[in-house]
Amino acid sequence: MTSRAYLYLNLAIAAIAAAGVVVGLTLDTRTTPRQPLAQVGKPPVPHGLPAPAGPQIEAAFRDWPNGSIDAMQRLGLEYSGGPTAAERRTGAIVQYYRGIALFWAGYPSDAQNALEFAKTLGKNTIIQGRADNFLHPGFFQDPNGPGYPVFAPTEKNALLEQGSRLQAEGHQESAESVYLRAARAAPGDAEAQVAVGVALFNEDNLTPAFSQLGPLIARFPKSQIVRFYLGYLLAWTAQGGKALVQFKDAVALGPNTEIGKASESFVSQIENRGSSSSPK
Fold first, then answer.
1. 78 and 173 share a domain?
2. pTM
């Protein structure tokens, strides 16, 4: 495992296993309208957002709450996507921050709509994962990362390393394509098959990722990395008890390897919190 990947993995382990506060959107499924219940204080002010809309978004958040929602609503109408990739990227950023502004101001249903739109416009960009992550507050929250788990290869493999970089940058679909190339080139390589499963992760639909990873246990019964990443995705989705089983099995397959040590770290932290309290 490269030093970069190992560092990322250990940071993720600590974050998932230790985080105790769920931050995100509590969806309002009622049909009757209610008065807005704003969050306390001001939302974080984004920095360095790209033009043309970035400076206007930053100004709206910096001036909160003075005209902020009106400004974001106007931007939402002005930047709602388009035929070009650049228009869609700009629209995704605007809709994402419009959703956060609406959530902060106490409009969860409108915020949900904006964030779902942002996820659609931001497909294969970092906005896709971040919007999806914000829409699922019961899962691990990764507000400063790509929003999705990132596969960290343990072996020297140019395609897997390329896919990992793409995932870390938020290019989930591009990473999936690269991982699929690696998996087809080496069908007997457990690591490549696991990488595909991690890239299939989508918080709106967990089935593809788990359907890819689950059968790999029987196909590669002695593979630590299969057990580890199955546990990792279970932990990410707040299934602590099931994750604990996979991590313990990974440790049993080799406690002194990097994956074994990472798995043991998860086991210790989950057990310290109690497996009934799933890591988030």
1. no
2. 0.85
